[in-house]
Amino acid sequence: MRRRLVLGAAAITTTIVLAFAIPLGLLIQSVANDRALTTGERAAQVLAPVLASDTDLATIEQVVRTVIDPAAGAVSVVQADGNVLGAPVVDPDAVALAKRDHQQFSTPVDGGRLVVVPVPVKGDTDVITVLVPNEVLEKGVRQAWLLLAGLSIALVLAAVVVADRLARTIVVPVRDLAATAERLGQGDLQARVEPSGPPEVVEVGHVLNRLAGRIAELLAAERELVADLSHRLRTPITALRLDADGLHDPAERERVTIDVDELVRAVDRLIDEARRPVREGVGSSCDLAELTRDRVRFWEVLAEEQGRTITTDIHVGPCEVAATDGDVEAALDALLGNVLSHTPEGTDFRVELTLAPMKRATDGRAWLLVLDDDGPGFPADGMIARGSSGAGSTGLGLDIVRRTAEHTRGSMQLRSSASGGARIEVTFGAPTP
């Protein structure tokens, strides 16, 4: 915007300056020409009375040499009998025309402009010619053009400087608005802008600050509601724990107690997540490879009970992604839990973690997590609905995965595996340096 405003001001100022400078320069050139021709005509008028007074040739030559200013040009006197006094005749045709028409005029010739003045003498006509050279005609014109050019450039530069200063008063506040909006988009709900600049931009700044405050209020209310609902689950969980303690079979009591403990941990994580500040997690990172191996080991127990085989191919070494441990664990549990819950028992599946191929050199490093299973696959009419909250349990689980991937500037793709089952490809972006 700033550049466009400056270029616009420069273009307008240049147009205005040229509209005035060019006619003014042409006027100066015309005035200089008229001044030089007037000087030549004045020299001829000084000599005309001498010719008309029947003065001898010696006197006329003396007047031409001493009285006439050489700066007026080369003066020639062509008498009626053809005798030429002074400088040689430059244009005989012009002399003949003046004798015939008895009219004073000027005509362009090589090297300048010729002033021709007829003088009646004893019933005949003598002709005075004054050659005004180009140097005299254009005297001071070049300096005037250079002065106009310098003034024009100075005016354009001044207009550019002023336009740049004015544009800065608009652009800088707008950039502050953009920076504050970017911080809000990254989760910093405490970001506020100091309104400045034109009144319209100031009003936008106040509106943005009110919007940020309103978002923070609504988000806080929503998180408190989720936390309260999660907290209400503690009562039925306590009842389940009491029921588990009342079981007579030690093995069954231990199994149910483990499940209740896992449920308690899940509820605690949900409450912590609901109360976590929005800003927390921005700029975080975790090792995706380590977490993937850990969650696979956790779900292997249930997979073995269901007669499943889990094949893994996980990248050796750290795989840093731009997310928190809790977010990635929730996404991995949703992926693995979906397979165990929505495919027949005995269905094998595979987990792969490799370096994702980059489309452009500027994409940065990313990691590709692939989960393949040998189950029935996604329904042909249900794949589009998956990954959308509210579309059932599978939709909510995949939506968790999708949102976690997009938070890291990644994505999730649903495909069919080579065996006809489901294939989920999740790309996680690495932390920004």
Rg estimate, integer Å: 49 Å
CATH architecture tag of the largest domain: 2-Layer Sandwich
> What's the tally of helices?
11
Please identify which CATH superfamily of the largest domain we are dealing with: Histidine kinase-like ATPase, C-terminal domain
Structural class: alpha+beta
Beta content comes to: 15-25%
- How would a crystallographer describe the biggest sheet? 5 strands, antiparallel
CATH topology call of the largest domain:
Heat Shock Protein 90
Give a written overview of the molecule.
The structure is a single chain. With 433 residues, this protein is α+β, with helices and mostly antiparallel strands. The chain folds into 4 domains: 2-139, 2-Layer Sandwich (Beta-Lactamase), CATH 3.30.450; 143-232, no CATH class; 233-273; 283-429, Heat Shock Protein 90 (2-Layer Sandwich). It has 11 helices and 12 strands. The protein has helices at 2-52, 57-66, 92-101, 134-137, 141-185, 199-232, 234-245, 250-275, 288-305, 325-342, 393-407; strands at residues 74-78, 84-86, 105-109, 112-121, 124-133, 286-287, 310-314, 320-321, 349-355, 366-373, 411-416, 422-429. The strands form 3 sheets. It has a 5-stranded antiparallel sheet with strand order 2-1-5-4-3, with helices on both faces. A hairpin with a 2-residue loop joins strand 4 and strand 5 (124-133). Helix 1 (2-52) runs antiparallel to helix 5 (141-185), helix 7 (234-245) packs antiparallel against helix 8 (250-275) and helix 9 packs parallel to helix 10. The radius of gyration is 49 Å and the shape is rod-shaped.
